[in-house]
Amino acid sequence: MLRAKDIMTRTVHSVTADTDVEELARLFVTKGVSAMPVLDEAGRLEGVVTETDLVEQDKPLHIPTVISIFDWVLYLESEKNFREEVEKITARKVGDICTREVVTCTPDTPVSEIASLMIEKKAHLIPVVEEKKVVGVVARLDIIRSMGQ
User: Fold this and answer.
1) Region of residue 123 (phi > 0: left; psi between -120 and 50: alpha; otherwise: beta)
2) Structural domain for 99, as ranges
């Protein structure tokens, strides 16, 4: 049975939360990857950032519908969602657009379990973590390659 350590990419391209989104865009192009782990100075995982996170900055802002009654403004949609959308669109750092709740695995996690995690959590990249450090990543392409082994 194949495990993460058998198929993972060991050369991990990563960024920090303080990386500018412009630099992130350049890294996606030059490194040829579509997702990267976000690491702190000690190499511990803080999140994952994807091309989708970056592309979402260019989507049009949806203005929520409101009703004004006297001096009150009532949002017919979630004000919190609107605030989060504005923050993401105006973000200048990776830490503002990355996903903080990251699905991870260990080097001994079976590939079948990783594939299930990717499907259930809609994850394109699963960081492989050992003793709080990222030792590799498993991308969808890694799983597809393993099917031929």
Assistant:
1) beta
2) 4-146
